[in-house]
């Protein structure tokens, strides 16, 4: 799902990016897309070390580095950003994408498991805040007019009859992005989020208890008004746009890529 053809443009020429959750799914697809769009380097950050190293090997170690990072640990996030600047001299793009979801997607507020709730909030909300904080500091200190993009969800624009912890965590991401965009605008740092609809990533396949990609595609089609299947590439396209100068006057935006689901 994540192999993308080279693109003809060079809109991210010379830029250095971090992609958290970059070892698989949307993160991996976006890391490849960023390189294809001319970035000088991308740092893959994840806790899936073997998969992360595999992505680096396929992209090429001359333009890609893997760094283990658990975004729930602020010190690891701080070290990730510091190491990136040390290796490549700057940070232009932070794609804060690492996220989790409870396998029990049918859970309502009446039977909410607060221990699982804490884990989801730690990654999806607290982890996002840590990534925005330390990326923004590095960009400001380096005099970089950078772009920070967070992954929210189409469910962050509406309520949902189940999956309470996940939906709540993604609503918080939009609040973070809108506030940070105002706070960092004077430094020329843009902060936006991309909100995917249902995409057949390894994460969603586990949550929906689907083993075959073809079966997952049938599920995904039910959540889109447009013909076809929403894929990782469509989200990667949106992230690349938000990371580039094509969106130089766009900040505080929630860019929904869902095939019309919330409509």
List the helices and strands and how they pair.
Blueprint: E1 16-20, H1 25-36, E2 41-46, H2 49-59, E3 64-68, H3 74-88, E4 93-96, H4 114-142, E5 147-151, H5 164-184, E6 190-196, H6 202-207, H7 213-221, H8 232-243, E7 254-257
Parallel strand pairs: 1-2, 1-4, 2-3, 4-5, 5-6, 6-7
Report on this model:
By secondary structure, the chain is α/β, with parallel strands linked by helices. Helix content is 44%, strand content 14%. The protein has helices spanning 25-36, 49-59, 74-88, 114-142, 164-184, 202-207, 213-221, 232-243; strands spanning 16-20, 41-46, 64-68, 93-96, 147-151, 190-196, 254-257. A 7-stranded parallel beta sheet has the order 3-2-1-4-5-6-7, sandwiched between helices. α5 links the parallel β5 (147-151) and β6 (190-196). The longest helix is centred in the middle third of the chain and has 29 residues, at 114-142. Residues 1-6 have low confidence and may be disordered.
Low-confidence region ranges:
1-6
Q: What separation lies between the terminal Cα atoms?
A: 26 Å
**What is the tally of helical segments?**
8
**Which structural class do the helices and strands define?**
alpha/beta
| Strand proportion | 5-15%
Helix amount: 40-55%
Radius of gyration using CA atoms only: 17 Å
Q: What is the topology, as strand order, of the major beta sheet?
A: 3-2-1-4-5-6-7
Oligomer: single chain
What is the string of SSEs from the N terminus onward?
EHEHEHEHEHEHHHE
Shape: globular
Overall average residue pLDDT: 90
Total E-strand runs: 7
Main pleated-sheet profile = 7 strands, parallel
Family: Belongs to the short-chain dehydrogenases/reductases (SDR) family.
Organism: Ziziphus jujuba (Chinese jujube)
InterPro entries: NAD(P)-bd_dom_sf (IPR036291), Sc_DH/Rdtase_CS (IPR020904), SDR_fam (IPR002347)
Protein name: (+)-cis,trans-nepetalactol synthase NEPS2-like
């Amino acid at each position: 799902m994540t192999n993308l053809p080279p693109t003809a443009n060079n809109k991210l020429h010379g830029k250095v990016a971090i992609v958290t959750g970059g070892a698989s799914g949307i993160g991996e697809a976006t890391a490849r897309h960023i390189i294809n769009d001319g970035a000088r380097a991308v740092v893959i950050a994840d806790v899936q070390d073997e998969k992360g190293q595999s992505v680096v090997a396929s992209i090429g170690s001359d333009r890609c580095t893997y760094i283990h990072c658990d975004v729930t640990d602020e010190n690891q996030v701080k070290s990730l950003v510091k190491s990136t600047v040390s290796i490549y001299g700057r940070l232009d793009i932070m794609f804060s994408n690492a996220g989790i979801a409870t396998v029990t997607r049918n859970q309502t507020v009446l039977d909410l498991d607060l221990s699982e709730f804490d884990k989801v909030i730690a990654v999806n909300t607290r982890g996002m805040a840590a990534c925005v904080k330390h990326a923004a500091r590095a960009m400001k200190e380096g005099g970089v007019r950078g772009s920070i993009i967070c992954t929210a969800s189409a469910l962050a624009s509406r309520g949902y009859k189940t999956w309470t912890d996940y939906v709540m965590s993604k609503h918080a991401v939009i609040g973070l992005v809108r506030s940070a965009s105002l706070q960092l605008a004077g430094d020329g740092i843009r902060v936006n989020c991309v909100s995917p609809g249902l995409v057949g990533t390894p994460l969603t396949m586990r949550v929906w208890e689907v083993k075959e990609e073809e079966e997952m595609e049938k599920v995904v089609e039910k959540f889109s008004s447009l013909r076809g299947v929403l894929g990782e590439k469509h989200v990667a396209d949106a992230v690349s746009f938000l990371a580039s100068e094509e969106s130089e006057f766009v900040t505080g935006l929630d860019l929904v890529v869902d095939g019309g689901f919330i409509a």
